[in-house]
Amino acid sequence: MDNSSTKAKSLQSNLASLLKGATDAKMPTGIKPMLATLTEAPFENPDWRYEVKWDGYRAFAYVQNGQVELSSRNNKSFSEKFYPITELMSKWTINVVLDGEVLVIGKEGKADFGALQNWRSEADGDLVFYAFDILWYDGKNTMELPLSERQAILAAILPTGDDRVRISKVFDTNGHDFFEAAKKMGLEGIMAKKSDSKYLPDNRSKAWLKIKANQRQEVVIGGFTINEGSNKMFSSLLLGVYEGKKLQYVGKVGTGFNAKMQREMMEKFRELVTDKNPFEVVPDINKPSRFRPNPPKATATWLKPELVCEVSFTEITSDGVFRHPSFEGMRSDKKAKEVVLETAVPVEKGTGTKKTKASAQAKKLVTAPNDAGRRTLLNPKEETQVRKINGHDLKFTNLSKVYWPEDGFTKRDLFNYYYQIADYILPYLKDRPLSLNRFPGGIHGKSFYQKDVKDKAPDWAKTFPYTTSDGEDKEYLVGDQEDTLLWMATLGCIEMNPWFSTVKHPDHPDYCVIDLDPDENTFEQVIEVAQEVRKILDAIGIPGYPKTSGSTGIHIYIPLGAKYSYDQSQMFAKLIVTLIHNQLSDFTSLERQIKNRGGKMYLDFLQNRPGATIAGPYSLRPKIGATVSMPLDWSEVKPGLKMSDFTISNAVARVKSVGDLFKGTLEKGIDMEKALVRAQEMLQ
pTM of the prediction? Predict the structure, then answer.
């Protein structure tokens, strides 16, 4: 028996043993969380375990038979809002109820509460669900089991392979060291949990303690002020906490929010404006202090006390007001009536110390998901979304409009694809004039080319003035960053058609292209011709890079390094296709006119001219199947290859797996003179 089988049997045996004490039960619903009590400082006790105090939204995951409900601590649904977690859990084969925290991993591997609050899609940050408890598993209520056993069950059953769902790591260590390590990392604090504690829903227990690295508190927004002469939407928020049924004023906060946040908050405030002061005592908003002896005159607008936010502060003054508060974010997951002032209980008495170095264990408490690449720009529900791309607001509309009817792919899928593939496609668009092939009605609707974008492109977009061969003056859009790419997609550009040259050397292409364009041929014959192209290129000692066209043919790129003119490139391509035609004249043609080809495959060399374009690498195509023009390794160019192998559904995963097989086309170009000598010898 191999090691993996032995390990699996051992795990199942251990799991069965752990579940012996659990009672049979149906899956619970609407659970209210077990809450921790604030304590003054860390402590050391061998009967306690430590975890990170996450800076996110508390959440329950109910998973049964592929159906998932993700809900807040107040049983508000998170399922649609945090759709990547819901979709991931729906693929599980286990039935389970988890207690955990949803957070966004920001820069430097830290939880970013502000990013979580404003999260709309995976473009806003890496979403992670940290599971720290298991309340039910496959017909068994586990809440009566000791915490240590629940954590062992959780470790045994939680699926691996996608670390957007993770176990909140348990540290069996020195509480003081762990707390200091968490502080150094800028974390919110730590949790201490008694190893033998049961899970007590809707209970604030002293068996779970929280130790905060910084002073933070949820507060109710009871109004806002506007200072005389200010052009801000509001100057400060008026804050309170409940004592019984009375809202007690705890101060005002005027820092921590930008203009965009203020606009969004004012939208919520408008519905809650009231003439009634919500606080037990009317606050003196113009009261001077030793820090601001002459505060600007302000007026107050009262709000119904329904909104909750979180603030950080340095201390609470003797009259119960927060000192130096700073706004941290809105808390849509918490009810206003539940917001009370947290007061710390005395420190747990220590009974011993442990020698484990917590600072070493805690070096990487929070990391971005392993596959933290781009996922979705737009969420799956909202029909109109505005996203900031490279500092520019782009509006995406009619997102459920179907572009590929036979396959069901929509505009949303188009935008998400180009967002995900951007790092790979942009090198082939960068600094290149682009012909816009627009399909505003989808692949079967009317389409048209647009080359001139004068007075039509955004003011931040790069353009290139160029006089065409027929004497027309045009202003071409130039490929730049993802903002340009996605703006093109909003116009209905399903495919991306860049020039072979850049604006830096418009008359000198970076590559020569051999376009195998079948007529009445089979794709097996296209593959046969491509293989012949490779033999010829090998014989004359130059590289070639193949890709599917995404339609019916294959393109082979030969790097030139912008050292030769279009005329030279076209002449060279003609020589190559002549050598091919000499070998395979039964089903290939060099005739430009379709009527003169006799149904044979056209070996197109005339694409190598100024202003000509073909679908670039990684471009989608307006074809049934939502195919992609995919770079290939030569070993893949063999019978069995199909155009349908590479689509909007799998192209991103493939490129992440194999890398950019086309990057050689942008590197050092060939020595055309030497290649020509060898090619001429083959013609003789």
Answer: 0.79
Q: What does the pLDDT average to over 549-557?
A: 97
**Residue closest to 378 by CA, chosen among 601, 179, 120, 141:** 120
Which residues pair with residue 643 across a beta bridge? Answer: none
> Residue type for 608, please?
N
Question: Within a 13 Å sphere around the CA of 307, how many CA atoms are in the beta-carbon half?
Answer: 22
CATH number for the domain formed by residue range(s) 511-683: 3.90.920.10
38 burial class (0-12, 13-18, 19+ CB within 10 angstroms)? middle
- Domain-by-domain residue ranges, the chain? 18-212, 216-312, 385-498, 511-683
Other C-beta atoms lying within 10 Å of the C-beta of residue 586: 7
Beta strand extents in 491-600 (DSSP E only): 497-498, 511-517, 545-548, 554-559, 588-589
CB 164 within 8 A of CB 88: yes
Lowest mean pLDDT among 52-56, 542-546, 587-591, 638-642: 52-56
348 φ, ψ (degrees, to nearest 5): -65, 135
Fold classified for 216-312: OB fold (Dihydrolipoamide Acetyltransferase, E2P) (2.40.50)
Cα–Cα distances in Å, from 493 out to 276, 403, 485?
54, 11, 9
Q: Does domain 385-498 have CATH number 3.90.920.10?
A: yes
Q: Report d(CA 162, CA 447) in Å as an integer.
A: 41
pLDDT at 332: 85
| CA–CA gap between residue 679 and residue 26 (Å, rounded) | 77
Correct CATH for 18-212 of 3.10.310.40, 3.40.190.10, 3.40.605.10, 3.30.470.30: 3.30.470.30
Runs of H (alpha helix) within 335-444: 358-361, 411-425
How far is residue 47's CA from residue 26's CA, in Å, rounded to a whole number? Answer: 32
What does the pLDDT read at residue 141? 97
The mean per-residue pLDDT over the stretch 85-106 comes to 95
Where is pLDDT greater, at 185 or 171? Answer: 171
- The angle that helices 411-425 and 482-490 make with each other, rounded to 10 degrees, is 150
Q: What is the pLDDT of residue 215?
A: 84
Specify burial of residue 222 (Cβ count, 10 A radius: 0-12, 13-18, 19+): buried
Looking at residue 682, its pLDDT comes to: 84
Can you tell me the distance from the alpha carbon of 369 to that of 347, in angstroms, rounded to the nearest whole number?
35
How confident is the model over 125-149, as pLDDT tens digits? 889 999 999 999 999 999 999 999 9
- pLDDT tens, residue by residue, 228-279: 888 889 999 999 999 999 999 999 999 998 888 899 999 999 999 999 999 9
**CB-based contact 173:192 (threshold 8 Å):** no
Residue 353 to residue 369: CA distance in whole angstroms: 34
Sign of the dihedral defined by the CA atoms of residues 356, 357, 358, 364, in that order: negative
For tokens 């391509």, name the residue: 573
Residues near 224 by beta carbon (within 8 Å), at least 6 away in sequence: 234, 235, 236, 237, 238, 269, 300, 301, 303
> In 3D, which of 340, 341, 336 has the Cα closest to residue 222?
336
DSSP H/E element including 181 = helix 175-184
- 26 forms beta bridges with none
- DSSP 8-state class, residue 31: P
Reported as a single tens digit per residue, the pLDDT across 494-538 is 999 999 999 999 999 999 999 999 999 999 999 999 999 999 999
